[in-house]
Structure formats: structure tokens, C-alpha cells
């Protein structure tokens, strides 16, 4: 199949532009969802991202409702909410399937949930190691929140007691979102 010179030139320009757009190091991470599907965080560069370490049997677990509401309200304008189940604080279910069923059936969670992993200490997954370094704050409990700016560098940490719909979080997200 022959490509016209114009089409070939356009294709090469698009490929060159994509090659020059490097993923911010903070977001250079690949995971699997609770369902085993690949998830590349780089695909969300340029968007505000709210990262949360979750647990199914925690007093803060009802925050799933507000996380899901935030996601549904702003996802079409660019917000990514992403959950990382962890048993670091001994309050998570045993398997990824159990976690996924719980999130879906109890809180109707539609935002991406990754496979269970560690989020603290030297065994923390690479993203949480980077979030801890960037914010100088590691999760002290479940439902710590990290708000990543669209620049992929700026990170603000919020402890478990700060609800997902707290004005400090929502105001910053709204400032970064695409206009309606």
C-alpha cells in the first residue's frame, strides 16, 4: 500500500510530536487494575490526578462515595481518580476479586482501582515511593490522598481525615480542569 507524500509527512510529524512529549517521571508507572487489565499512568499526563490508598474494612471506607461522586462530576473535564488498595494497615480484603466486588457492589465505584499493593516503606509501589518523595508525606493510614497537578510534578498530600469533597481539594481540581 502506497501512502501519499502528504499523508506520510503528516504521519511522521505526528509521530515525532508524540515522541518528544515525554512522560513526567512521577507518572512513569504501569499497573494492573483489579480485573487484571493494564493501566499506564502516562496516558493521563496533563490532567489533574487524585491518587488514594484505599482499604475495604476501614472507618474511612465510606469516602468511596465522595471519591466516586468527584470522579463522576469531573471525569469528562479531565480529572482522574485512581485507587490503590493496600493491606499495609491490615484492613483490606484478601483478594483483588473480593476488593473489586466490594467496591462495585457497595459503593458503585467506576474510577480505576489498581491491584492491591504496598503504599508505605521500602516495599511501596513505585508511584507511592515517588508521591512520598514529592510531597514529603507517606500514608499514615488508609485514604491518604495525593493530588497531582497537570504538570505531573506538583503534589499535594491530604491525610485521611480530609474528605474528597473538601474545598481545598475541589477548588484546586476546578482550577486545573478544562473549561466546560
The total number of structural domains is 1
Structural class: alpha+beta
Strand order of the largest sheet: 4-3-5-6
CATH architecture: 3-Layer(aba) Sandwich
Structure description:
The protein has 180 residues and is of the alpha+beta class. It has one domain: Glutaredoxin (3-Layer(aba) Sandwich). It is 33% helix and 14% strand. The chain contains five helices and six strands. The chain has helices at residues 5-20, 63-74, 96-107, 126-135, 167-176; strands spanning 30-32, 38-40, 49-54, 80-85, 145-148, 155-158. It has a four-stranded mixed β-sheet, with helices on both faces. Strands 1-2 form a two-stranded antiparallel sheet. The protein is globular and about 40 Å long. The termini are far apart. The model is unreliable at 3-20 (pLDDT under 50).
Quick tags:
180 residues, alpha+beta, Glutaredoxin, four-stranded mixed β-sheet, two-stranded antiparallel ribbon, 5 helices, globular, disordered N terminus
Quick overview:
The chain is an alpha+beta fold and 180 residues long.
Would you spell out the secondary-structure blueprint of this structure?
Elements: H1 5-20, E1 30-32, E2 38-40, E3 49-54, H2 63-74, E4 80-85, H3 96-107, H4 126-135, E5 145-148, E6 155-158, H5 167-176
Parallel strand pairs: 3-4
Antiparallel strand pairs: 1-2, 3-5, 5-6
Amino acid at each position: 500500500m502506497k501512502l501519499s507524500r502528504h499523508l506520510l509527512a503528516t504521519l511522521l510529524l505526528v509521530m515525532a510530536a508524540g515522541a518528544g512529549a515525554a512522560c513526567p517521571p512521577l507518572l512513569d508507572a504501569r499497573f494492573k487494575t483489579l480485573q487484571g487489565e493494564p493501566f499506564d499512568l502516562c496516558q493521563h499526563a496533563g490532567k489533574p490526578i487524585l491518587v488514594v490508598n484505599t482499604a475495604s474494612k476501614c472507618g474511612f471506607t465510606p469516602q468511596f462515595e465522595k471519591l466516586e461522586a468527584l470522579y463522576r462530576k469531573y471525569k469528562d473535564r479531565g480529572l482522574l481518580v485512581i485507587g490503590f488498595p493496600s493491606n499495609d494497615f491490615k484492613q483490606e480484603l484478601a483478594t483483588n476479586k473480593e476488593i473489586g466486588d466490594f467496591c462495585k457492589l457497595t459503593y458503585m465505584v467506576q474510577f480505576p482501582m489498581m491491584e492491591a499493593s504496598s503504599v508505605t516503606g521500602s516495599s511501596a509501589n513505585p508511584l507511592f515511593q515517588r508521591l512520598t518523595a514529592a510531597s514529603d508525606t507517606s500514608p499514615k493510614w488508609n485514604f491518604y490522598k495525593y493530588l497531582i497537578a497537570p504538570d505531573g510534578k506538583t503534589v499535594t498530600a491530604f491525610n485521611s481525615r480530609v474528605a474528597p469533597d473538601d474545598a481545598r481539594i475541589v477548588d484546586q481540581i476546578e482550577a486545573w480542569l478544562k473549561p466546560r
